[in-house]
Write a sequence for this structure.
């Protein structure tokens, strides 16, 4: 009788506060045959805290391509494996993608055990629009590359988010201030769930001053969130030149033609031009 293959579990771990760990995650880590951790030394603190004695091996960015194939073979032979990262949800700017992709290709069941994620936690408390957002992960290390990326994001119609380290947060905010208007809203979440958790929403101009003046704002781990470009509200009335153009066209053309030409010439909204044309017509008939 062929041996039933094991499963692969993707388990989120706390991002600072050890209490942010689900009962299901603890039970699963106790039940699996092997835990693959980004850093086994870091994982040991969490595992010992919850009395988890399951064998732990390393799976990080330097060995995951090579190690993943061997792990897939173990699962096929019946071994159940869990992936954890140093903090938060695996694969979200952390190792694990090659293993998960290979598991799907091999028809192996992949089960997520949800929990902490710095990205989602920061967004939920940011005060910015979060119904639609994009995640950029960790940014390039050079100023020129960061500014190029920021320019590409300028017209993004939704909030955009990225991770940054304490070593580059000041330079990153400086680069951001070079690209965004001074009053553009941003939010920074620092040390989420930890003792010195700080979440601030302000203009980019104010944020730059804060980061430069407060040394605490250059310590820890950061999630930076940038609000979308404000939508320009179109005027509810025609300006003087647009109105003059419409009146001239109405003298020479039918209303339909005049409105169509006025859209092309003035750039005003068709609905507004048509409504104004009707009002002019009614006024002339009165």
């Amino acid at each position: 009788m062929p041996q039933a293959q094991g499963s692969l579990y993707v388990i989120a771990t706390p991002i600072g506060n050890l209490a942010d760990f689900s009962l299901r995650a603890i039970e699963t880590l106790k039940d699996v045959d092997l835990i693959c951790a980004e850093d086994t030394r870091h994982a040991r603190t969490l595992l010992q805290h919850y009395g988890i004695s399951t064998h732990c091996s390393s799976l990080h960015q330097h060995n995951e391509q090579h190690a993943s194939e061997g792990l897939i073979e173990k699962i096929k032979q019946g071994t159940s494996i869990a992936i954890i990262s140093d903090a938060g949800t695996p694969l979200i700017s952390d190792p694990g993608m090659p293993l998960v992709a290979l598991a799907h290709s091999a028809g192996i069941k992949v089960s997520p055990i949800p929990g902490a994620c710095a990205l989602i936690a920061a967004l939920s408390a940011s005060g910015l629009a979060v119904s639609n957002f994009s995640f950029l992960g960790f940014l390039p290390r050079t100023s020129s590359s960061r500014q190029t990326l920021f320019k590409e994001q300028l017209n993004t119609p939704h909030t955009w988010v990225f991770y940054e380290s304490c070593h580059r947060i000041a330079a990153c905010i400086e680069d951001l201030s070079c690209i965004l208007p001074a009053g553009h809203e941003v939010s920074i979440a620092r040390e989420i769930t930890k003792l010195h958790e700080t979440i601030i929403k302000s203009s980019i101009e104010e944020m730059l001053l804060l980061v430069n003046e407060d040394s605490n704002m250059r310590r820890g781990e950061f999630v930076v969130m940038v609000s979308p470009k404000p939508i320009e509200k179109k005027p509810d009335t025609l300006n003087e030149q647009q109105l003059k153009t419409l009146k001239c066209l109405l003298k020479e053309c039918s209303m339909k033609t005049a409105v169509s030409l006025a859209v092309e010439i003035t750039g005003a909204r068709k609905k507004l031009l048509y409504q104004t044309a009707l009002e002019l017509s009614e006024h002339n008939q009165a």
